[in-house]
C-alpha cells in the first residue's frame, strides 16, 4: 500500500500540491520571498553587512523589470530609458520643492508626465525600425539630460540636482529612514517593499494577459503578427508607455530613498547599466531582470569593499591574500560573467542558468524514477 493511501491527510496534501494553484501563485510567492529574505541575507556580516542596500536593490529590480517589458517581451531596445526614471525622480522633487505640492500628488504628476511622454515618443518612433528606435530613444534621453543640466528657471538644480524633497511622513534618524504616521512608525523599507510587490504584480498581470502574449508574438515574428491582423505599432506604443510608467514609479521610490534627484538618474550610464542588468539576469524570464539587478549591485558593493581573503576562516588564517588592488576593477569580473552568460545562453542569463542547474539537481537526486 502506498504512503498516500495509508495517510489520507498526506494524500490530500499531495493532491493539493499537484494542482495548478502553486504554479499560478509562483510569482506572488516569489515576490514576497524576495522582500522577506533579501534584507536579512545581504545584511549578514559575511556578505554586505548593512541593511540599507536592500532598498536600492528593490528599486533597481523594479526598474529592470519595467525595462524588460520593452526589450524582453516586445523585442525593442531603448538606449535612453533613464529619462523615465528621471521623470519620476525630478517630477516628485520639483513638485514638492518648487510647486509646493504634497509629495503623493507630486509623485503622481511625475509618473503621469513620464507616461504621457512615453506614449507621445512611442507614437513618433515606434514605426522607425529597431535600430532607429534605439538611436532615437538615446537622442531624446540626451536632450532631457541637457535640459536638466541647463537648469532652466532654476527648476532642476543643474549639475547639483535637487535635494531635500521628502514626504512629510518620512523621517531620518542616523541614516535610517522611517515612515512616521502619528503614533505609527516603521522602517521605510516596509513601505518600499509593499509598493515594489504591487508594481511587480502589475507588470506580471500585463505580461500574462492577452496583451502580454501579443507582445511576445510581435517579438517572435512581427510580420506574421501583421498578417493575422495585429496592429503591431499600437502594441509597441503601449508597451513603451507602460514601461515608461513603471520606470517612473521606480524613479519616485529612488527619489525618496536618495532624498532628492540627481543628473545621474538621467545619464546614459544609468541607461546602459539597466540594459546590462536586464540581459545579465535573462530577458526570457519575469524574474530574470530582478536577478540581474541583484547580481550587479551585490557585486559592486561586495567586491569594492572586499580587501583581504582569509582561508579557511578568520580565526584560522592559514592563507591570507590581499585583493583590494584587484577587486577595484569589479566591473571587469562582472563583465566577464556577463560575456559567459551571453555566450552560453543569450536570452537565459544568470536566472536561466540557475533554473537549469536547479532542475538538473532535482532530476538527479529528487526526480521521479519513472
Automatic annotation (TrEMBL):
The chain crosses the membrane at residues 25-42, 54-76, 96-119, 131-148, 188-207, 274-299, 319-345. InterPro entries: ABC_transp_permease (IPR001851), LivM-like (IPR043428). Keywords: Cell membrane, Membrane, Transmembrane, Transmembrane helix. The keyword Membrane applies. It is found in: Cell membrane. GO terms for cellular component: plasma membrane. Signal peptide: none annotated. It holds the Pfam family BPD_transp_2. It is a multi-pass membrane protein. This is Branched-chain amino acid ABC transporter permease. It comes from Haloferax namakaokahaiae. The lineage of its organism: Archaea, Methanobacteriati, Methanobacteriota, Stenosarchaea group, Halobacteria.
Amino acid at each position: 500500500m502506498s504512503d498516500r493511501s495509508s495517510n489520507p491527510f498526506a494524500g490530500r496534501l499531495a493532491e493539493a500540491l499537484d494542482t495548478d494553484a502553486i504554479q499560478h501563485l509562483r510569482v506572488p510567492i516569489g515576490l514576497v520571498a524576495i522582500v522577506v529574505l533579501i534584507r536579512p541575507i545581504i545584511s549578514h556580516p559575511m556578505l554586505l553587512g548593512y541593511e540599507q542596500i536592500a532598498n536600492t536593490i528593490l528599486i533597481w529590480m523594479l526598474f529592470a523589470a519595467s525595462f524588460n517589458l520593452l526589450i524582453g517581451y516586445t523585442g525593442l531596445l531603448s538606449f535612453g530609458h533613464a529619462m523615465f526614471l528621471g521623470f519620476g525622480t525630478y517630477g516628485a522633487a520639483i513638485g514638492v520643492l518648487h510647486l509646493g505640492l504634497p509629495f503623493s500628488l507630486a509623485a503622481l504628476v511625475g509618473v503621469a508626465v513620464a507616461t504621457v511622454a512615453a506614449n507621445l515618443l512611442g507614437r513618433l518612433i515606434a514605426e522607425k525600425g529597431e535600430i532607429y528606435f534605439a538611436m532615437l530613444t538615446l537622442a531624446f534621453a540626451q536632450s532631457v539630460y541637457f535640459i536638466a543640466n541647463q537648469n532652466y528657471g532654476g527648476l532642476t538644480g543643474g549639475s547639483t540636482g535637487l535635494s531635500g524633497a521628502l514626504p512629510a511622513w518620512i523621517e531620518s534618524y542616523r541614516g535610517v529612514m522611517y515612515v512616521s504616521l502619528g503614533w505609527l512608525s516603521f522602517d521605510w523599507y516596509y513601505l518600499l517593499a509593499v509598493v515594489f510587490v504591487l508594481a511587480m504584480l502589475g507588470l506580471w498581470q500585463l505580461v500574462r494577459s492577452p496583451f502580454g502574449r501579443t507582445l511576445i508574438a510581435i517579438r517572435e515574428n512581427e510580420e506574421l503578427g501583421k498578417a493575422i491582423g495585429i496592429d503591431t505599432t499600437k502594441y509597441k506604443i503601449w508597451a513603451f508607455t507602460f514601461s515608461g510608467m513603471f520606470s517612473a514609479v521606480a524613479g519616485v521610490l529612488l527619489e525618496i530613498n536618495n532624498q532628492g534627484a540627481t543628473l545621474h538618474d538621467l545619464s546614459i550610464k544609468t541607461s546602459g547599466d539597466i540594459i546590462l542588468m536586464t540581459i545579465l539576469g535573462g530577458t526570457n524570464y519575469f524574474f530574470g531582470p530582478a536577478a540581474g539587478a541583484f547580481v550587479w549591485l551585490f557585486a559592486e558593493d561586495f567586491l569594492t569593499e572586499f580587501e583581504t581573503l582569509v582561508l579557511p576562516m578568520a580565526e584560522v588564517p592559514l592563507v591570507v591574500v590581499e585583493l583590494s588592488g584587484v577587486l577595484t576593477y569589479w566591473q571587469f569580473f562582472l563583465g566577464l560573467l556577463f560575456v559567459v552568460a551571453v555566450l552560453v545562453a543569450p536570452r537565459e542569463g544568470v536566472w536561466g542558468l540557475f533554473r537549469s542547474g536547479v532542475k538538473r539537481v532535482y532530476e538527479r537526486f529528487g526526480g521521479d524514477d519513472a
